[in-house]
Amino acid sequence: MATSGSSSxxxxxxxxxxxxxxxxxxxxxERPPEEHAGLVAALPSYTVxxxxxxxxxxxxxxxxxxxxxxxxxxxxxxFEPRPSDVIVASLLKxxxxxxxxxxxxxxxRHAHPPGAxxxxxxxxNPHQCVPxxxxxxxxxxxxxLDALPSPRLMNTHMPLAVIPGAVPAGKVVYVCxxxxxxxVSMWHYYRRVYPELSLAETVDMACDGTMPFGPxxxxxxxxxxxxxxxxxxxxxxxxxEMLREPDESVRRLARFVGLPFSxxxxxxxxxxxxxxxxxxxxxxxxxxxxxxxxxxxxxxxxEALFRKGVADDWKNDMTPEMARRMxxxxxxxxxxxxxxxx
Length: 342
Fold this sequence. Notes:
- The chain is an alpha/beta fold and 342 residues long.
- The protein has helices at 15-20, 37-42, 69-78, 96-107, 126-129, 133-137, 166-169, 179-190, 199-208, 216-229, 239-244, 246-256, 263-268, 270-277, 280-285, 320-333; strands at residues 45-47, 55-59, 62-65, 86-90, 153-156, 171-176, 234-238, 293-295, 298-301.
- The strands form three sheets. Strands 5-4-6-7 form a four-stranded parallel β-sheet, with helices on both faces. A three-stranded antiparallel β-sheet has the order 1-2-3, with no helix packed on it.
- Helix 12 packs across helix 14 (270-277).
- It is globular and about 50 Å long.
- Keywords: Transferase.
- This is Sulfotransferase.
């Protein structure tokens, strides 16, 4: 479980580099999956049509991949945040990889200037730079977080209620995407492994709430309400706004994490350098993002993380009937919350 750490380095540092350093990472025994076998088996289950081997379990009101229920339980029991922690959070296919890259490049810019030829993002996938909390806690490997110097930068798809102490103790940056665009992007992503999955089936699970980490409305509203209650602790970003104004989004991110850009950095073009380094075109061209898998256990290729990165692309795939159905769900679930979608 996370402690304050003793490294003299200033974070964030590329997690892959620290994880590979046998002298830095403390060996911790992995807790066997059977630790939560009884809990998982007792939960309501759902298998997505078109994804026959992908089972979801309903845990604390959210549908989660069966294999990640132990991670959720472990997070709730064992996660100990540091006051300087920054957690990047989102639903699937909402600009996660882009925001992870921007957050890392922004927070680590003094050690790794965006124009440097040896910048970590030029040799590592963004998710190799920033640890995925579910991946560590699902195997009882969260002790690896101890080796990270503060401030730690982490990533999660978990609902806020599953991350104890994250707010208001540390800082959370959440990115939200228009739900129809999210659903279409999720369909394109999942059919790389499940080619039989149809868009209609994907829209069904989004509208029914039976999508991974869904219902999407409860996930989004958990962070939306936290941002209203603790604006100094939760930054709520809109993917579409980030696309329109990437430079200003990076400045906003930097101010939020307590690392605003100086006048000298502005003059030197550091903000523009970060945006260009983390652009879809740039990341897609990196060798580390052309090969390998997001998770070796499930063969989603890394290059599938970099598809189009545009707004309103859902219009090219959804039928009018699908769009009307999702719009009805959105209108109903977000009525009176103050959160509206373009």
